[in-house]
Each structure stands twice: as C-alpha cells, then as structure tokens.
Amino acid sequence: MTARALFRYMQPRDLSAHTPYRAGRGVEEVARELGVDPEDLVKLSSNENPFGPSPAAVEAIHEAAAGVHTYPKAVHTDLMAAVATKWGVEPGQVWLSPGGDGFLDYLGRAMLDHDDRVLVPDPAFAYYGMSARYNGAVVDRYSLHREENFAQTPETVLSDYNGHRLVYITSPHNPTGSEMSLDDVRTVADRTDPETLVLVDEAYGEFTTQPSARQLLKERDDVCVLRTFSKSHGLAGLRVGYGLVPAGWADAYNRVNTPFAVNTLACSAALAALEDDQHLEQAVETARWAREYMHEHLDAPTWESGGNFVLAEVGNGEAVAAATQRAGVIIRDCTSFGLPDCVRVTCGTRETMPEVVDTINNVLAGGIAE
Q1: What is the pTM of this model?
Q2: Which residue in 196, 201, 204, 149 sits closest to 170, CA to CA?
Q3: Taking 90 as the threshold, does the pLDDT of residue 24 lie above it?
Q4: How far is Cα 14 from Cα 353, in angstroms, rounded to an integer?
Q5: Can you spell out the DSSP letters for 239-269?
C-alpha cells in the first residue's frame, strides 16, 4: 500500500451526521478578539452561575489538590452516597459522570444497540443526537412549536413516537425555557412501550418550582433523570454531573463507566457544594428575579422560562449577539438551535442585569436586528 493510499485509509470514520456542539463564547476569547480587558465584559451566553462556585467548594478544591496523584475511589464513593441521601435513593441508583453529557454517553452504552431508534426534541441540546449516534442509534425528532410557545405536552412527544428505545425530555428546556409537568412525564412513560426508556434532562431543575421526575423512580423502572453541578452549583469547569436511575442498575454502571471519570477535585468540590444551601439559594432566587426583569424590561418578545435564562425574539439573532458583544455583553445567538431570529440571555446578578438589558435594548433600537 502506498503512503498516499494509507493516508486515505487511516482517516476517521464518516462523522458528517454529527452536528458539532457549539458552546457560548468565552470571556478570554472575546476579550482578545475585541482588544479589551476581560473584566469589562459580561458573559451571559453559557447559562453559568454568575456567582461562581461555592466558597466551600473552592476551599475543598485547595484541600484536595495535594492528593491528585491518587485515583478518586473514596471521594467518588462518598459523592455517590451524598447524592443518594439528597434524593432519597440507593447509592447504586446514582451514576456519577463527567458532566451531564457524560451521563448521556453512559446511558447510550448501557441501553442502545446498533440501529436502535431514539427520539429527541427539536430544538434541543445537540449532544443528545451526537451521543446516541456514537452508539450506532438512529435519531428521530419531535418538534416544539413556536406558535404553541414551545409547549411540552405528551401529545407533542408522542406524535412522533414509534417504539423508540430512548425518548429524551428536557425540563426546563434549553433554549426555550418551557417545562413538562410531572403528570405529563408520567403520561409519556405510560403511553410508550415497556422497552422504551424516558430520560428527563433536569440540568436546570434547581431553577424551577416544578417537582423532579425523580419521584417516578419510586413507582417505575422506565424513567431516569439527568442532573448536573454545572449550572446552579457553579462547577461547570469541573465537569461533574449524574443520573438518577431505577433500582437494580448498579451493575450496568460498573460495566459502562469510564474508570475514575469524575476526578478528585470535581468530587471534592461537589461534596462541599451540596452542603452550601445558602450559595444555591442565592443563585436560584437571583435567576428567578432576573427572568422576570428581562420579561418586563427587554424590548423584545420573550418566552416564560423555568431555567436560568430567557429566550428573546430579536429579528436577527446573529447580528444582535455580535453588536451586543461589541458593547461588552456576550449573549447566545440561537441560530445553531434552528432559531436564527432569537437570542438566549443567561440570568446575571441584580447589579449587572439592568445594564445588560439596556445594552440589548440600545442595540435593538439601533435597527441592527432588521
């Protein structure tokens, strides 16, 4: 075989069906591009906690740092037990993972065979489909409709259901903020086949007043729940999430888990964050205030949201996001979600939100959205 032929042969497999996940732009990246001090920018594009991590989590990271030469066996077990206690489940029902997306991977490894079909919402977090395809699954979609305010009902999901192995529900939904009630999740599970697993992604669950689908784990084995420390607990950079799964799945976790995937610092920080109720309450209460502030003061139509963000219709999302960024506020253009006329604005602090809203309104008043 010639070198040229070998080069062609030794290429990655065809990944063209995988739409890359496009994260919100970082402060340092934008600051370099604009030639400004990062301190002069407000980043509200990635649904992060504007208060940062809990001080207790930061202290725990410092204390654990000297032990990073050892594998995180004990602290991993401790975090599983702590999360289990928080939710009233057995430790074996907690699948720790490197971020919520890590749990999606574990679930795919455990549940999907080649050519199984999964059903995901549209618009949606792109990694649902990517993770499923990595495991050989075929991805179908059900649509959340703008004219229905992106409402999530059993009929919305089941209109495109056809015996799928996995059905993904996001509540609160990213990027629209819409929610599905616990009764409606139960209805979806009741009306799907016994072989269908309903995954409820509650990455933004702390910010809503809706009850968690965790309650359904007490009565059935066809529902699981995704949670994360990235949003409300401010640990996005450490990548620590988890799933709550039916009883009896512990052996499956041991067979699909990447060895020691959640690192020592992440486990230590998450353990401390679980104990800091004051920090969590501050983040949640401020996000709820900021949502209402945006609904009342943004000069653009917005949708009700259960998350720590608001979706706004601005005409030209890319242009508005770019102009707002030049003015010092980084928000999310939603073109990658299939909503090119919208932006998503993360909830900031009480001190920053008035300036953020004024900045967006000034951009809109300048006609850039047309």
Answers
A1: 0.92
A2: 201
A3: no
A4: 44
A5: --EEEE--TT-HHHHHHHSPTT-S-HHHHHH
Selection from 286, 51, 363, 335 nearest residue 175 by Cα: 335
Q: What angle do CA 270, 272, 276 make, to 5 degrees?
A: 110
Residue-by-residue DSSP string for 117-157: EEEEEES--THHHHHHHHTT-EEEEEEPPGGGTT---HHHH
- The model's pLDDT over 155-183, given as tens digits with 9 standing for 90+, comes to 999 999 999 999 999 999 999 999 999 99
One-letter amino acid at 61 equals: I
Element (H, E) at 94: strand 94-97
Return the structure tokens found at 352: 């920053």
160: DSSP letter: T
**b (16+ CB within 10 A) / e for 48-87:** bbbeebbebbeebbeebeeeeeeebeebbebbbebbbeeb
Residue 152 · residue 304 · CB < 8 Å: no
Task: Give the whole-angstrom CA distance, residue 370 versus residue 348.
Answer: 26
More confident residue, 216 or 36: 216
- CA–CA distance, 60 with 72 (Å, rounded to integer): 14
pLDDT of residue 114: 92
Amino acid (one-letter) located at 125: F
Beta bridge partners of 200: 169, 225
Q: Where are the alpha helices (DSSP H) in the chain?
A: 3-9, 27-34, 55-65, 73-87, 99-111, 127-134, 154-158, 182-191, 250-256, 264-275, 277-297, 317-326, 353-365
Chain centroid to CA 312: how far?
19
Give pLDDT, residue 12: 72
Per-residue pLDDT reduced to its tens digit, 44-69: 999 999 999 999 999 999 999 999 99
